Amino acid sequence: MGGQKPEKTKKRICIGILAHVDAGKTTLSEGLLYLCGEIRKLGRVDHGDAFLDTYELERERGITIFSKQARLKTEEMEITLLDTPGHVDFSAEMERTLQVLDYAILVINGMDGVQSHTMTLWRLLERYEIPVFLFVNKMDQQGTDHDALLMDLRKRLNENCMDFACMTEDAREGSAGENGKTESMKPGTDTSGDREALMENLAMCEEELLETYLETGEVAHREICRLIAERKVFPCWFGSALKMQGVQEFLQGLESYTMERAYSREFGARVFKIARDPQGVRLTYLKITGGDLKVKTILDEEKIDQIRIYSGSKYELVQEVSAGDICTVTGLTKTHPGQGLGTEQESVLPVLEPVLNYQIILPEGCDVHEMLKKLKQLEEEEPQLHIVWDSVLGEIHAQLMGEVQIEILKSMIWERFHVAVEFGAGSIVYKETIAEPVIGVGHFEPLRHYAEVQLLIEPGEPGSGCQFFTACSEDVLARNWQRLILTHLEEKEHLGVLTGSALTDVQITLLTGRAHAKHTEGGDFRQATYRAVRQGLKKAKSILLEPYYEFRLEVPAEMIGRAMSDVQKMQGKFNPPETDGDMAVLTGMAAVSSMRDYQKEVISYTGGRGRLFCNLKGYAPCRNQEELVMASGYDSERDLENPTGSVFCAHGAGFVVPWDQVENYKHLDCGADAEELAQDTENWYEIPEQETSTESFTGMPAGGQNRTGSGKGRKGQKGFSYSGSYEEEQELQAIFERTFGAVKKERFTPSRTVGRTSESTVRYRAGKPRREEYLLVDGYNIIFAWEELRELAKKNIHAACDKLMDILSNYQGYRKCTLILVFDAYKVEGHAEEVIPYHNIFVVYTKEAETADQYIEKTVHRIGRQYQVTVATSDGLEQVIIMGQGAHRLSAMGLKKEIEDAEKAGKQEWKARRQSSKTYLFDQVSEELSARLEKVRMGQEEL
Predict the structure, then answer these.
(1) Where are the beta strands (DSSP E) in 471-533?
(2) From CA 860, how far away is CA 778, in angstroms rounded?
(3) Distance CA 789, CA 799 (A)
(4) d(CA 143, CA 277)
(5) In the sheet that 451-459 helps form, which strands lie side by side, from edge to edge?
(6) Which residues contact 137 (CB under 8 A, 6 or more apart)?
(7) Gap between the Cα atoms of 571 and 565, Å rounded
(8) pLDDT mean across residues, the chain
(9) Torsion on CA atoms 793, 794, 798, 800, rounded to nearest 10
(10) HSE-up of 218 (CA within 13 Å, CB side)?
């Protein structure tokens, strides 16, 4: 009995299309829609009838401003195509879309090749780990060179950019052009040689593939798909989207070489856009990353009213969507771009951010507060807009990417709110950070209120933003209060104390706090937390940061001297110029403040032949910090919304204590020392001399650049050790054996690691794992070798001994060895040998007439053959004797270095393990269980 064949399940792929402005991105989208039968007629951007240019402003200007969605279907797959803005001023909209993509199409202008913004897009795709298909457009224009362009892609993007034209049907034949071909396409030629060369290049990507290829002469189709998905290969096609040349082959390539992702069965979704429809209904754009979503589902105490599937400006209503779908829902009022729903976590901080600040000038009679509320709606849809209310001046400011965005924003405000606004002169968006760790104290105790908070504020990695942690014990402060403090830290944009600019690149950790059983309320901790941050910043050494552009300047060769001179005047940095025909190319970086208006000057002195491309590189310390701070006129003491002092209570009334006196009144001691923490902190930013050299900026975050600052106490040699390297130990051992004879060792030789320190000072030969390790310490020898203990011993020898015992007790906790501290008592008449356990170590006082050296030699002789024994002493003769017994030597200063390294490793481990402000499901389970649960979540296993 013949049954009906089940319908083949189509793979579902979400693909974004990206490009530098005017590369032909929207035109390629039109071609793909046309080939899939979604539109009957090809639209054109310059004619204003493109399917995805749904806004009037986009049709007028011929550029994409907002990301749009279209649905395409082929025989084997369903594509959700997301068209993103190409203009640099709208890059934030593009970056938000990247977080939901399975694959990306990067369109390259065949006439211009790889441009500066193309490099920015490539770095973003690399950061979000998105597989990329490349389409080199406009190959029908005269002067395009296929081979030169492919070489440029391999040089500037990735060496594994490969031409896949020979891998699709009807290779190198135009599909719908005027004559079916372009200059770089060669119909009718034998492509077997190209295919063989491509297979060989694919096989070279992995050693196992190369072995298989040498045996079979082919690379399997599934392996090619895997290489692309893992970003090891980047397939390229060449053609003309306007004339539909190469578009059919490109679509075949997408259909053939993409793979559908595996999704979890548990519900998860990521918000990537907020918008409003023509009726003013709030729309939340989601990608479902796990499970299903149905109408009327409750998310964060809000109900889903509708689920819409958009394609262009039209949509259809559905009752349910499943993992992998892109949809738009109504009914959610609290969502924001980057938010994770269900099992999905919050997205990472965006790389691209506005660097210019403009005052919004309202017409006369316009209610400023009412307008502020309306502008906040726009900020919801465009988070990088940053609408800021200046309460002191009573002004509204907007932080934007550039001049084009200003014109668009003015049109949007008129269209949406019918208010004709103007924008004032732009200024630079500065930021602030700190150079060294500091502990901030905040106390809020007016009558019948109480809260105290102490925070550790540390410098963070450039570009990391503000991160919040807790290291406070729940025995000291209850978990609910700790979570409340972290919430207050996250809810506010904290301001620096130099110019009132936003604080960035810091890690803030809750050290301790106190609540009152009766009088503490939630608002008390808000006040104490804010004041702790401000008090810490007032104590800290603050750094003012300014944005820097990465630029590419193309000028006629005879004018390169003028260009280099201009960049030097801007205190920028540039690479050696390159020549491209009669044009010279200069690349480098310079401050936004000095380069923002340089485009007009370039056009002027080159007669319109020069071009300047700029992309935000990052933030670095200002070279004229003092001048900018003075010009800002900001006074942190007069900022009533961000007080620096604290409120204490005495005699039934509250009183304000200035920030520099708060520590004299505080009720808690966190036990941390900011000066000690500063010694172990990496300096991310090298503070330049004011208004001087044009050296490189080590603080600038960039891919592949070593993020090193000046650092404190760093040694130039790798693996520096006071006790000598492993090779030195071998050399000394050889000298000893030549002088006194071989040392017979009938025991195992342990591995070349010691304890848990980050950089081992004592090195051991590789061999069998050790069973037990002993460390013998000559107490008085160490005391008089260490300066701080020697000074203490001059006042009180017993205090110095106690201090050494405490230090070694802490060290044993890191080292996990049997530690024996030996003190001389040979001058004490009638004294018997005494062994006293002190916490986790043993303290030995020798018997009458026995020195510590003698006791150590006796002990090493007894146990040195069975165990790993190290002796810490600076007595040269003693070191030679114990080496003859098979023990290892460690000088007094070597021991000190070991202890310092162990403490540093412990602090780093503490930082890594301290709690984040977010709690996730797998945080507290074992690695094995976490791995299994992850497989269950992804649908690869069942419980």
Answers:
(1) 502-503, 506-515
(2) 13
(3) 9
(4) 44
(5) 653-657, 646-650, 438-444, 451-459, 506-515, 466-470, 915-916
(6) 23, 24, 27, 28, 107, 108, 109, 110, 239, 240, 241
(7) 10
(8) 79
(9) -20
(10) 5
pLDDT recorded at residue 278: 82
Please write the tens of the pLDDT for every residue from 440-456.
999 999 988 999 999 99
Q: In the block, which residue shows the tokens 């298909």?
A: 133
What pLDDT is attached to residue 394? 76
Length of the chain, in residues: 943
Rounded Cα–Cα distance for residues 516 and 518 (Å): 5
Burial of 167-180, coded b for 16+ CB within 10 Å and e otherwise, reads: bbeebbbbbebeee
Between 360 and 348, residue with greater pLDDT: 360
Query: If residue 802 lies in a helix (H) or strand (E), which one and from where to where?
Result: helix 797-815
Q: What is the dihedral of CA 671, 675, 679, 685, to 10 degrees?
A: 120
| Six-digit token string for 76 | 């084997």
Tokens describing residue 659: 């920030």
Cα separations in angstroms, 159 against 111, 118, 681? 21, 16, 38
The residue whose two tokens read 């009327």 is 296
SS3 (DSSP) at 682: coil
Residue that is written with structure tokens 């919050």 in the block: 346
Q: How confident is the model over 822-864, as pLDDT tens digits? A: 988 766 777 788 888 888 889 998 888 788 888 888 888 888 7
With bands split at pLDDT 50, 70 and 90, how would you rate the model's confidence at 439? very high
Question: What tokens does 929 get?
Answer: 């269980």
* pLDDT classification of 23: cutoffs 50, 70, 90: confident
pTM over 0.70: no
Which amino acid belongs to residue 469?
A: F
Task: Please choose, from the candidates 133, 136, 156, 296, the residue with its C-alpha nearest in 3D space to the C-alpha of residue 225.
Answer: 133
> Which segment of 251-255, 549-553, 885-889 scores lowest on mean pLDDT?
885-889
Buried b (16+ CB within 10 A) or exposed e, 147-166: eebbebbeeebbebbbbbbb
Give the whole-angstrom CA distance, residue 50 versus residue 42. Answer: 8
Q: Are strands 387-390 and 68-73 parallel, antiparallel or unpaired?
A: unpaired
